UniProtKB/TrEMBL annotation:
<keyword id="KW-0500">Molybdenum</keyword>
<keyword id="KW-0732">Signal</keyword>
<feature type="binding site">
    <location>
        <position position="166"/>
    </location>
    <ligand>
        <name>molybdate</name>
    </ligand>
</feature>
<feature type="binding site">
    <location>
        <position position="59"/>
    </location>
    <ligand>
        <name>molybdate</name>
    </ligand>
</feature>
<dbReference type="GO" id="GO:0015689">
    <property type="term" value="P:molybdate ion transport"/>
</dbReference>
<comment type="subunit">
    <text>The complex is composed of two ATP-binding proteins (ModC), two transmembrane proteins (ModB) and a solute-binding protein (ModA).</text>
</comment>
<comment type="similarity">
    <text>Belongs to the bacterial solute-binding protein ModA family.</text>
</comment>
<dbReference type="GO" id="GO:1901359">
    <property type="term" value="F:tungstate binding"/>
</dbReference>
<dbReference type="GO" id="GO:0030973">
    <property type="term" value="F:molybdate ion binding"/>
</dbReference>
<dbReference type="InterPro" id="IPR005950">
    <property type="entry name" value="ModA"/>
</dbReference>
<dbReference type="InterPro" id="IPR050682">
    <property type="entry name" value="ModA/WtpA"/>
</dbReference>
<feature type="signal peptide">
    <location>
        <begin position="1"/>
        <end position="22"/>
    </location>
</feature>
<protein>
    <submittedName>
        <fullName>Molybdate ABC transporter substrate-binding protein</fullName>
    </submittedName>
</protein>
<dbReference type="InterPro" id="IPR044084">
    <property type="entry name" value="AvModA-like_subst-bd"/>
</dbReference>
<dbReference type="Pfam" id="PF13531">
    <property type="entry name" value="SBP_bac_11"/>
</dbReference>
<dbReference type="GO" id="GO:0046872">
    <property type="term" value="F:metal ion binding"/>
</dbReference>
<keyword id="KW-0479">Metal-binding</keyword>
Length: 250
């Protein structure tokens, strides 16, 4: 994703035959979760009839923007930490925080039908490896933990290419600016296997769990669309879509 300080904004217009008053909902969503959210849009439309306005970017940057008063109603983070901090700072609706998805990490290369193994990280000293910025992107922090667990922190230090978020990290690999990279499994998988390129699904015990939390922000305390959307994310229909996109759920 090319933007640095401003996320990409786009609107998803939802229509419904349900006789409820339509309201606008502004959602800040971590870039790893854009595709599942796009798939959910028509399902949510049929159930609620509200309009979604989505902003995508890095979790850490969204946290900073919300602290400065950014006009978001719901925050879909890629971690638990930032929503919990916002809650402690009094910036969220009490009791609205919950885990909506558990992410998985993959080491990915764009060539299909190729083996991908952790030992390939050091096979060629000229190979560049992409990760998301661990300071702002939870998937980057998870990748950093995997590299440390494998004992490769020093060996890879000079060869890491950092994306601002997981979407940009994916682009680094897809465009050949890095030979391989640690991306979200949801970006490259379908039906439990790599849908594009080749990937190693990183064992979940090699990094802290990527528990992605949602929270309603205080400006949306009286916004019926925000509460309807939070309820929808907990529904079986939403859970099915989330799982189909390579995530685990609680």
């Amino acid at each position: 994703m090319p933007a640095r300080l401003r996320p990409t904004i786009f609107a998803v217009l939802l229509t419904s035959t349900v006789p409820v008053a339509a309201a606008e909902l502004t959602v800040a969503v971590a870039s790893n979760f854009v595709k599942p959210l796009e798939a959910m849009a028509p399902v949510f439309a049929a159930a609620a009839g509200h309009q979604l306005k989505l902003s995508t970017g890095a979790t850490g940057k969204f946290y900073a923007q919300i602290q400065r008063g950014a006009p978001f109603d719901v925050f879909l983070s890629a971690d638990e930490k930032r929503p919990a901090l916002l809650e402690s700072e009094g910036r969220t609706v009490a009791g609205s925080r919950f885990v909506y998805a558990i992410g998985r990490l993959a080491l990915w290369r764009p060539e299909p039908g190729q083996a991908v193994r952790p030992d390939m990280l050091t096979a060629d000293p000229a190979t560049r490896i992409a990760i998301a910025n661990p300071k702002t992107a939870p998937y980057g922090a998870a990748a950093e933990a995997v590299i440390a667990h494998l004992g490769l922190t020093e060996a890879l230090k000079a060869r890491l290419v950092q994306g601002e978020n997981i979407a940009q990290t994916y682009q680094f690999v897809a465009t050949g600016n890095a030979a391989m990279g640690f991306v979200a499994w949801s970006q490259v998988s379908r039906d439990g296997a790599a849908a594009s390129g080749s990937a190693w699904l990183v064992p979940a015990d090699l990094h802290p769990p990527i528990r992605q939390s949602a929270v309603i922000l205080t400006r949306a305390a009286d916004n019926p669309a925000a509460h309807a959307f939070a309820a929808f994310l907990k529904s079986e229909a939403a859970r099915k879509i989330i799982q189909q996109h390579g995530y685990d759920t609680e």
